[in-house]
Amino acid sequence: MGSALANIDESSLEQETKRMLQHTVQAFRRAGIHKDDDTRNKIKAIQDELVKLGQEFADNIREDKSSIELDTTKDLKGLPEYYIKNYKPKNNKINVPVTSSAYTAFMKYAESEQVRKNFMSTYLNCAENNGNVLKKMIEKRHELGL
């Protein structure tokens, strides 16, 4: 399929069609269509590993239980009232799970710059074991450069 497309005479094609053809041929080449069976099988195995690593990366973020601890309800100032009602102080502290929805709300509405900074830092550093997963993903991507 890839070589049949590569052998099309582009001289009579419109610019848009020529561009689409070039992109399609390039996609086939990136997928390894021009490689031997063993190499294509290796590429497929690496791509399968990358999918699994990507899922592990996402799972680690989803399963992360990071939270920030706020000292007073003043730290919630600026957030919508319905949101503030979700967080009741316990032992004079307010524990807020670091989730993407909470992150969005705090970045958009929290008036305290320090609270926003703390929330952002915690949010961006969640799933600490993803450093190793990311390293494996990078190694696998380099292997694809067969």
Going across the major beta sheet, what is the strand order? 1-2
Rg (CA only) = 25 Å
Counting DSSP E segments of at least 2 residues, the number of strands comes to 2
Order of helices and strands: HHHEHEHHH
Structure description:
The chain has 146 residues and is mostly helical. Among the domains are: 1-34; 65-124, no CATH class. The chain has 7 helices and 2 strands; from the N terminus they run αααβαβααα. The chain has helices at 2-6, 15-30, 37-63, 81-84, 100-109, 113-124, 130-143; strands at residues 67-70, 94-97. A two-stranded antiparallel sheet has the order 1-2. Helix 3 packs antiparallel against helix 7 (130-143) and helix 5 runs antiparallel to helix 6 (113-124). It is elongated, with a radius of gyration of 25 Å. It starts with a helix and ends with a helix.
Quick summary of this structure?
The chain is mostly helical and 146 residues long. The chain is 60% helix and 5% strand.
Distinctive features:
2 strands, 146 residues, mainly alpha
